[in-house]
Amino acid sequence: MFLTYDITREDTFLNVLEWLKEVKQHASSDIVIYLIGNRCDLEDDREVARERAVEFCEQYSIDKFFETSAKTGNNVEEVFSLAAKEMYV
After folding, report:
1. Cα 7 to the center of its chain, rounded Å
2. Does domain 2-87 have CATH number 1.50.10.10?
3. At what angle do helices 10-26 and 50-59 cross, to 10 degrees?
4. pLDDT at residue number 89
5. Most Cβ neighbours (<10 Å): which of 6, 63, 84, 87?
C-alpha cells in the first residue's frame, strides 16, 4: 500500500494519518505500507521536513519511506521495483 503526500503541501501530509487509519481498519494486518513524499524536485517549496516523515513512519510502524519526483522520475523506479520484489518474497 502506498500512502502518498506532496512535500510542498502540509495539508496533504496531515491527511496521511486518516488514510493510515482507514488502511489499518480495512486491510490485512500483514500489509506492507510505504509512505511516499512526492515532488522532491521542489525542495525550495518544501513544507514537510523529511525528518518529520521519518518520525511519522517510526511512530506508526510504516514499513518504508521514500521521497520521489513524478516529474523527474527520481526514486520512482526504485519504489516500484522494491514493492514488486517484496510481493514475490
Report:
1. 10
2. no
3. 20
4. 65
5. 6
What's the pLDDT score for residue 55? 98
DSSP assignment of 26-48:
HS-TT---EEEEE-GGGGGG--S
10-residue mean pLDDT profile of the chain (89 residues): values are: 96 96 90 96 98 97 95 94 83
- The residue extents of the domains of the chain are 2-87
Give pTM, 2 decimals: 0.90
Residues forming a β-bridge with 65 = 35
Alpha carbon 42 to chain centroid, angstroms: 16
Give start and end residues of each alpha helix (H) in 1-89.
10-26, 50-59, 76-87
